[in-house]
Write a structure and sequence with these properties.
The protein is mainly α and 116 residues long. The protein has eight helices and no strands. The mean pLDDT is 92.
């Protein structure tokens, strides 16, 4: 869900980064999954400098996309408004994007369950 949500947001605010935004969302929880610092993880992965920087919390286009996504997921509305203001986007578009990301994830899961 986070990967697709990030990708959709990038398509709106920075289309050239949409593919990297998907990876950003996908990899954004690797530190928790692997129980390792994100700085160690990104050193081991062949990622662009901007993507690596965003994953470790630096402020760049991808980092700001991740801030919007995390703020929305955690209902940190003040933080979300600030992050949206950086992109000059209306926060009203986020619920629909999130819903579409959930639908995409549900469809992906259903298509893979039929294979098993």
């Amino acid at each position: 869900i986070r990967a697709k949500f990030s990708e959709q947001l990038a398509e709106k605010v920075a289309p050239a980064h949409a593919d990297e935004a998907f990876l950003l969302g996908l990899f954004s929880l690797l530190d928790a999954i692997l129980d390792q610092p994100m700085t160690e993880i990104v050193r081991q992965l062949p990622l662009s400098e901007e993507l690596s920087a965003a994953l470790i919390g630096h402020e760049n286009t991808l980092g700001n996309i991740l801030r919007v996504v995390k703020s929305y997921e955690s209902a940190s509305w003040t933080s979300m408004r600030k992050a949206c203001a950086r992109f000059r986007i209306e926060q009203d578009i986020l619920p629909n994007m999130y819903e579409l990301a959930i639908e995409w994830a549900d469809q992906y899961k259903a298509s893979n369950e039929s294979i098993l």
